[in-house]
Design a protein that fits this description.
This protein has about 200 residues and is of the alpha/beta class. The protein has 5 helices and 8 strands; from the N terminus they run ββββααββαβαβα. The protein has helices spanning about 60-70, 70-80, 120-140, 160-175, 190-204, and strands at about 5-10, 20-25, 30-35, 45-50, 95, 105-110, 145, 180-185. A hairpin with a 7-residue loop joins strand 5 and strand 6 (about 105-110). The structure holds ligand AR6.
């Protein structure tokens, strides 16, 4: 049986601002909702909200390649040349090293572009989380950080996306107990609040 409990813990975010982050548990796995830049997170892997070219872009993708350096792009090119010559399909996930990042690895996944919700977007978004977690487990990683996939340039409404993100991670952790810590690194206070509400709704 998985246990879900939560507590607020005081911490200092990247701007040095004291915030009350939220912590939740599914079994032994800790889920933290934090506000900040995912490139600062020191989990084993951080997840990149990439596009199917794997050649970089704006938002989280741009930040990860900037901070991580050229090694990540080189490895992405190699993946394109070998595994995915036509591009990484939406919902799938691949891994590179973390270059100069604190995280050892980057898991690149492609979220769905929001087209009104009738083109299978919710299932595809859920797949990005399950495939990223499966990949992390298959590589024996213990800790992973997610951004809010698809809710920037891809326009997925964050109220809907946050519920899918939280519910999918919970479901995966209930099946699979080899992960110790999952972090949601939300860029703005507003995004963090929305994820908090989603978590409360799903688990309370
Ligand atoms: N750390 C954490 N979250 C961030 C960061 C960061 N450094 N930067 C932005 N966000 P987006 P998408 C938030 O656009 O919607 C790229 O060009 C941001 O506020 O990064 O999946 C790719 O190459 C938002 O809430 O990803 C693709 O072409 C969330 O991360 C396309 O954008 C996701 O925004 C993918 O779009």
């Amino acid at each position: 049986m998985s246990k879900w409990s939560n507590q607020r813990v005081e911490s200092t975010n990247i701007e040095g601002i004291k915030t009350m982050d939220e912590e939740f548990y599914v079994g032994k796995a800790k889920i933290r909702l934090v506000q900040g830049d995912i490139t600062e997170v020191d989990t084993d892997a951080i997840v990149n909200a990439a596009n199917s070219t794997l050649m970089g872009g704006g938002g989280v993708d741009g930040a990860i390649h900037r901070r991580g350096g050229p090694k990540i792009l080189e490895e992405c090119k190699c993946i394109r040349a070998t595994e995915w010559p036509d591009g990484l399909p939406t919902g799938k996930a691949v891994m590179t090293s973390g270059g100069n990042l604190k995280a050892n690895c980057v898991i690149h996944t492609v979220g769905p572009f929001w087209r009104g919700g009738t083109r299978g977007e919710s299932d595809l978004l859920a797949e990005t989380y399950t495939n990223s977690l499966k990949l992390a487990v298959s590589k024996r990683l213990r800790t992973i950080a997610f951004p809010s996939i698809s809710t920037g340039a891809y326009g997925y409404p964050i109220e809907k996306a946050s519920r899918i993100a939280i519910a999918t991670v919970k479901k995966s952790l209930e099946k699979e107990d080899r992960l110790d810590r999952i972090v949601f690194a939300l860029f703005t206070k507003h995004d963090l609040e929305i994820y908090r509400e989603a978590a409360k709704e799903i688990y309370d």
